[in-house]
Amino acid sequence: MADYLDNTNKKMKLALQLVSGYGGEFQSWRLADSNERAYTDIDFYVEMAKTAEQGKIHTLFIADTPSFGGAGGGTDISTRTPAFPLETMVMLSAVAYATQKIGLVATYSTTYNLPYNLARQLKTLDTLSGGRVGWNAVTTGTRETAYNFGNKPLPDTATRYEMAHEMVEAVQTLWGTFGEHAYIADKQTGQFADMSQIKPANYTGKHYQVKGALPIPATPQGQPPVFQAGPSPEGIELAGRFASGVYANPFSIDEARAYRNVIKQSAIQHGRNADDINMFSGFMFTIGDTYEEALARRMQLIDFMSDDEFYGQIRYLSAMIGVNLHGLDVNEPLPKSLQNQATPHPHDPRSPRAVELIKQGMPPKEALANGVINYHPVVVGTAKDVADFMENWFKAGATDGFSLVPDSQKGVQDFVEKVVPILQERGIYHTDYEGSTLREHLGVPYQYGLIESTN
Fold first, then answer.
1. Sign of the dihedral through C-alpha 210, 216, 221, 222
2. Which family is this sequence assigned to (predicted)?
3. Phi, psi at residue 209, to the nearest 5°?
């Protein structure tokens, strides 16, 4: 692997997902220490953001989609919390006024927005926050979203990514139309703005066209950095051209290193530096003073499930390990003969860990509690266990940092109070913010307007 994967003398970067105000486990709202009304309690959401800022976490990250979404993207929230928060821009506006340093990354679709509206909203929030906003540009490929924006069919993948390139081009062009030094506001001369530095966008693409200038001056970071979250070849191309941050979902160090290499190479191919793009690996955790305490918390979350939901997970685990668990006592280790039969599913990257735990004699229910079917790697244990996992990945060059998904609201405070000091003592996490803007936090260059790729 290339030298740019060497994290010696580097410090990891962290993003925090607050999901819909509850945490990454959609039954966590029922825990005794959870605020069950967090979905609409903006003050509570802001307090969690302030706690994250106390831990010097680089940025908040809000995943979102412009359609009704429950746990795992479904629409049934009869017992499980939504996967997405209230409207992203409004939520982050409240957070911006209550915080000073932490970044604010909002997800907005490149398929179901118009460049002028989006450019205006994001740059206004960047102005309001003093230069702390980022844009997670996603293509949005669900029929439910397409139905919300009229009767047109969902564009195919190639078209959606063609639209994504145009959307980012148009938005960044608009961001640069109000010259960096055009804002004068001189009472003595009477000049408010230098019109010679304010130019129309005149952007004409196949899918998006926009003419006028955007009447918003540069922010302290110039304009918001772009983030990206798609692992497809098209997504990697988009990231290499535009992104300062990439949200990734690898399940092993080897897989993470390979993907990190690919996105860094994509940046280089577009005439950028490898360090201009940061990979954030998704990571979930439950922290206790002992493994047993953390496990008990995870077991409680499983016990909140309906029988249908729990046995659906058992069926899923059966397929992952190639052993039919139906009729077995899921609270006991599998018989040795069945442990020996367990084989990872070739198309599920989570399967090797599931098989490993089963062959170690872990009962199926405990394996589920350890997150073997979760959508990110999961650590259940002490603060040291969490810090060890993060250090191992970081020092192996598997990632630039992590997108943290705590199990519950309590997990935010647990991470800040218990894990952050360990990471700082080990010298792999900063003790203060590098500056006041998101670009400074990320260590990426100032940018204003569209920078053309050299590819």
1. positive
2. Belongs to the NtaA/SnaA/DszA monooxygenase family.
3. -135, 140
Using alpha carbons only, give the angle 280, 129, 236 rounded to the nearest 5 degrees.
30
Question: In terms of pTM, does the model score above 0.90?
Answer: yes
Report pLDDT for 75.
77
Give the H/E segment covering residue 243. Answer: strand 243-248
Inter-CA distances, 230 with 188, 259, 374, Å: 51, 12, 18
For residue 253, the tally of other CB atoms under 10 A from its CB is 16
Token pair for residue 116?
A: 């002028």
Query: Which of 69, 155, 163, 172 lies closest to 118, judged by CA?
Result: 172
Neighbour tally for 195: CB within 10 Å: 11
* 414 marked ligand binding residue: no
444 phi and psi, to 5 degrees? -115, 155
Please give the angle made by the CA atoms of 276, 279 and 282, to the nearest 5 degrees.
160
Q: Is residue 78 a known part of a binding site?
A: no
Residues of the chain with CATH 3.20.20.30: 13-288+382-442
Burial class (CB in 10 A: 0-12, 13-18, 19+), 49: buried
pLDDT value at residue 91: 95
Residue 431 is labelled as binding a ligand:
no
**Coil, strand or helix: which one is 302?**
helix
User: Is 13-288+382-442 in CATH node 3.20.20.30?
Assistant: yes
Residue with tokens 């795992």: 72
**E-strand stretches of 71-166:** 103-109, 133-138
Q: List the single range of 82-86, 197-201, 285-289, 416-420 with lowest mean pLDDT.
A: 82-86
Q: Quote the tokens at residue 344.
A: 């990872």
Helices then strands, counting H and E runs in the chain, come out as: 16, 13
Any binding-site annotation on 453? Answer: no
Measured between alpha carbons, how far is 377 from 371 in angstroms, rounded to an integer? 7
At 236, list the tokens. 């990697």
